[in-house]
Specification:
Elements (H helix, E strand, L loop, with lengths): L1 H7 L3 H66 L2 H8 L7 H21 L3 E8 L5 E3 L3 E2 L11 H6 L5 E7 L3 E2 L5 E10 L6 E10 H5 L10 E5 L5 E4 L9 H5 L2 H4 L2 E7 L2 E9 L6 E7 H5 L7 H40 L14 H42 L1 H17 L3 H18 L5 E3 H18 L3 E7 L7 E3 L4 H12 L6 E12 L2 E10 L6 H7 L4 E2 L2 E2 L2 H14 L4 E6 L5 E8 L4 H6 L2
Helix pairs in contact: 2-10, 3-4, 10-11, 12-13, 13-14
């Protein structure tokens, strides 16, 4: 128990360091060394077998292709069209017959090109070099351009095929200069055995490389001559280079498959000789390419490795949970306090940094909660005192009694109009003061407005009003004196100066705002309206000869924002000559207690 307490009281950095040493270091060292040795040997054996199979397949495919093309060249030696075109003379054949032979010659060459997808083009040259025939996809074929073909080798070969190593053509094939491999034969007169010409069948090196270019690794697959010159490769940039420039002499010396060292890296090399000219197919790839994932695939992971990793995982979960639980609890507590839940506290379980931080956090939240409670109480008391001060200044009972006396005197003198006005005035002030209550039902606010508007229409006979409240909102609760200042503003700034037809409309209903139901009121007049500039000045505290401009509207706006916050409040719509519409939105409160909680 003492050791556990000592560990709990350690700094977090020491805890993490100790756990890393206990769990990670022995496991990583043991697994890395063992798995690397086991998988390296297995991966090398698999890679050697795979490379041998790959090179064998490539060799067989290329041998078959070369044999097929050699067979095409053999057939061309006895082709009657070639024989006729190469042996004709101007004296023996008419001009028309010569033209027919030439056309047949070109048609036959094009047929030979189309017979095999790897045959790129064909050239036939007479013995003296004066006549050159070639397939239609070639251009810029001249006597100097065909000197790239070694005639002497063909003569010395005595009729056998001669494979010509990769060269860049001086002529164009399909409007391009290409790297070509060619097979050449001499053509002899089948009647007397004399030499009459030469045939060259060209193979596009890029087409040949597609046979072995589908490889995912960073490898080189090449055809090289006995001196190490690269005749064809899956990577075009190494063609015509020497393997000694890439890997030294290792590719020339290796016969079969082996892993050899080249500079700072090991290279897996597989090599097999082709049937032609001593050329060979070579496959070379850095061992790092096929070894990068092999260490994970090992039997040790299933056996001893799985046991070690499982043990490390269990210990890691236990220790990490032990360390991080207090931090997570503190984080959740901070989040809750940030969301306004000041009653939240976090548990203190140790005397380390997190424990001391948790203790100070709890202490800080308690102080904040006490301060906020004190501030709320002071604000409520301040508001009550201010309201009581206002009510005491009015002396409501004296006012009610005086108004009732005036009303009785008016009735005694049969002045019924005066009696009604005085009664409305008394009702107005009685509902305005409301015994110091800050919230009232909508139905009471409606009666308040009716008393006020009766007095105003008695004063301004050209003015009328209409109140239309939805029956569903009659029992909803709203702050006292919410709509009367807006109606008063409409009368004194919009309807008082209107000569006739003045109308004030007050409406109330329930509408949806941002997915919730809210209480909405409008106070609309048909007065002269306001310009956009005047609308902007309403919200500015500008001193006028009559006091603060639009003080009533701003006062209502501040009361709403203080009580309910955004996005509730007043919106004003107006155009010159079309009156003013003031729209007011507050939360829909059905129970009085809900409204008191917002104070």
């Amino acid at each position: 128990m003492k050791a556990i307490q000592v560990f709990q009281d350690m700094p977090i950095r020491r805890k993490i360091q100790l756990i890393n040493v206990i769990i990670i270091l022995p496991s990583i060292v043991f697994l890395t060394v063992t798995l690397y040795q086991m998988t390296l040997h297995q991966a090398e054996e698999r890679a050697l077998r795979s490379s041998e199979q790959k090179v064998g397949h490539i060799t067989n495919t290329i041998n078959t292709l070369f044999n097929d093309i050699e067979n095409f060249s053999k057939l061309s030696m006895i082709n009657k069209t070639y024989q006729s075109a190469l042996m004709e003379t101007g004296a023996e054949n008419s001009e028309l017959q010569q033209l027919d032979n030439v056309q047949s010659m070109y048609a036959s060459l094009n047929t030979l090109v189309e017979s095999n997808p790897y045959i790129d083009s064909v050239v036939i040259q007479s013995m003296d070099g004066s006549k050159i025939y070639y397939s239609d996809n070639m251009s810029n074929v001249t006597v100097p351009s065909v000197q790239v073909y070694p005639k002497e080798q063909l003569i010395n070969a005595k009729g056998t095929a001669v494979w010509i190593e990769t060269f860049e053509s001086l002529f164009l094939v399909n409007d391009q200069h290409k790297n070509l491999l060619s097979i050449g034969r001499r053509i002899i007169n089948i009647n007397d055995g004399l030499l009459i010409g030469y045939i060259y069948i060209n193979i596009d090196e890029r087409k040949l490389s597609k046979i072995y270019s589908n490889d995912d690794l960073r490898s080189n697959i090449m055809i090289v001559n006995p001196e190490g010159k690269i005749l064809s490769a899956n990577r075009a940039e190494v063609v015509s280079q020497s393997t000694q420039d890439l890997y030294g002499r290792i590719l020339i010396d290796v016969d079969g498959s082996a892993i050899v060292k080249s500079g700072k890296q090991n290279i897996l090399v597989s090599s097999k000789v082709l049937d032609k000219n001593g050329w060979r197919a070579v496959y070379a790839v850095p061992t790092s390419e096929f070894m990068k994932d092999q260490w994970k695939i090992t039997m040790f992971i299933i056996g001893f490795g799985l046991t070690g990793l499982l043990l490390a995982l269990v210990l890691s979960i236990i220790f990490s949970k032990w360390i991080t639980n207090p931090i997570m609890m503190l984080s959740r507590a901070m989040t809750a306090v940030g969301d306004g839940k000041l009653h939240t506290r976090t548990m203190v379980s140790a005397n380390d940094e997190v424990g001391r931080l948790s203790y100070k956090f709890n202490e800080m939240v308690s102080r904040i909660q006490d301060l906020m409670h004190t501030i709320n109480q002071e604000e409520k008391q301040k508001r009550k005192l201010e309201l009581q001060l206002s009510y005491s200044q009015i002396k409501p009972h004296f006012l009610y009694n005086t108004l009732e006396m005036i009303r009785s005197m008016a009735l005694m003198r049969q002045a019924h109009d005066i009696s009604k006005v005085v009664k409305s005035l008394g009702d107005f002030y009685r509902m305005s003061l409301n015994r110091g209550q800050e919230i009232i039902p909508v139905s009471q606010e409606q009666k308040h407005l009716e008393s006020y508007l009766f007095i105003q229409t008695s004063r301004y006979h050209h003015m009328n009003y209409r109140i239309d409240f939805d029956s569903r909102i009659q029992e909803c609760w709203i702050p006292n004196m919410l709509l009367q200042p807006l109606v008063e503003n409409a009368i004194y700034h919009g309807l008082r100066e209107k000569q006739e037809g003045a109308l004030c409309e007050i409406s109330g209903w329930i509408e949806e705002m941002n997915g919730i139901d809210v209480l909405c009121f409008t106070v609309k007049d048909n007065g002269n309206g306001m310009s956009e500039d005047k609308l902007k000045r309403i919200w500015q505290y500008e001193q006028t000869e009559h006091g603060l401009s639009s003080f009533g509207i701003r006062n209502i706006q501040e009361r709403i924002r203080l009580r309910y916050g955004q996005p509730y409040g007043i919106t004003i719509f107006s155009l010159p000559g079309e009156g003013v519409e003031v729209k007011l939105r507050i939360p829909l409160i059905v129970k009085k207690t809900e409204l008191e909680e917002r104070i």
